[in-house]
Amino acid sequence: MSHPALTQLRALRYFDALPALDPQQLDWLLLEDSMTKRFEQQGKQVSVTLIQEGFVTSAMLDGERHLLPDDARYWLREILLCADGEPWLAGRTVVPESTLTGPELALQKLGTTPLGRYLFTSSTLTRDFIEVGRYDALWGRRSRLRLGGKPLLLTELFLPASPLY
């Protein structure tokens, strides 16, 4: 199962340098905190539509392979993050199997819980980088995050209804 927004997310092209954007767009794209929390601050009820999740091989990683350690399998989760039922963001999380130990096993059991609700409660969360990308008129970003030093990759595409636009 897939969704057109996830096809667009996988087609994002990343900039080597930060593009010239207005301050509001940069504020959204470079947000270090939880996107779920930001959406809720807009007075919206946030929900997740789960598109797919499960283990995949490295052959299923779309240009992401070089950003993660070699592993036998990766946990892949693709979702739409909705505000009052309207999709605002498509998200793709890739987690090396070696990351899924200890408390991080919970990443496999999120279901319709927003990733941000789990990640941003951890005192061990760090972010290595944010890369800004674009597909047609849509903006996105990807970040390598670490929980207890263990990596995962999060890619987000802001959909047309999102307040980024």
TrEMBL record:
Domain of life according to the entry: Bacteria
Gene3D superfamilies, A to Z: Chorismate lyase-like (3.40.1410.10)
InterPro entries registered for this protein in UniProt: Chorismate--pyruvate_lyase (IPR007440), Chorismate_lyase_/UTRA_dom_sf (IPR028978)
Keyword set, alphabetical order: Cytoplasm, Lyase, Pyruvate, Ubiquinone biosynthesis
GO cellular component: cytosol
Coarse class of the protein's main subcellular location: cytoplasm
Listed transmembrane segments: none
One BP annotation, GO: pyruvate biosynthetic process
UniProt binding sites for substrate: 35, 77, 115, 156
Documented EC number(s): 4.1.3.40
Localization: Cytoplasm
EC category: lyase
Pathway connected to this protein: Cofactor biosynthesis; ubiquinone biosynthesis
Keyword Lyase: yes
A molecular-function term among this protein's GO annotations: chorismate lyase activity
Catalytic activity reported: chorismate = 4-hydroxybenzoate + pyruvate
Assembly notes: Monomer.
Function: Removes the pyruvyl group from chorismate, with concomitant aromatization of the ring, to provide 4-hydroxybenzoate (4HB) for the ubiquinone pathway.
HAMAP family: UbiC
Family: Belongs to the UbiC family.
Stated name of the protein: Chorismate pyruvate-lyase
